[in-house]
Amino acid sequence: MDTDQNSSVLKEGFLVKRGHVVHNWKARWFVLMPDKLLYYKYEGGKRGSCQRGRIMLKDCVITCPFLEYDYRPLVIRLQTQSCGEHFLEACSREERDEWAAGITTAMATLRLNDAPPDNQSEAAPPKSLGLHNINLSQVVDSMYDIHSGIRMTSLTEQCNTYSNCFSGSSVVDWLVFMQLVLTRVEAATLASALLEEGFLRPLGFRSVEALRSAGLSQQFLDDSTALYGFSDSFKKRGSVKPEKTLSAVELAGKVVKRGYLLKQGHKRKNWKVRLFVLRSQPGYLHYYDPSKDDINPAGGFSLRGCLVSALDDNGVPSGVKGNVQGNLFKIITQSNAHYFIQAPTRQEKTDWIEAVRGHS
Question: For the segment 85-110, what is each residue's pLDDT rounded down to a tens digit?
Answer without folding.
Answer: 889 988 777 788 889 888 988 888 88
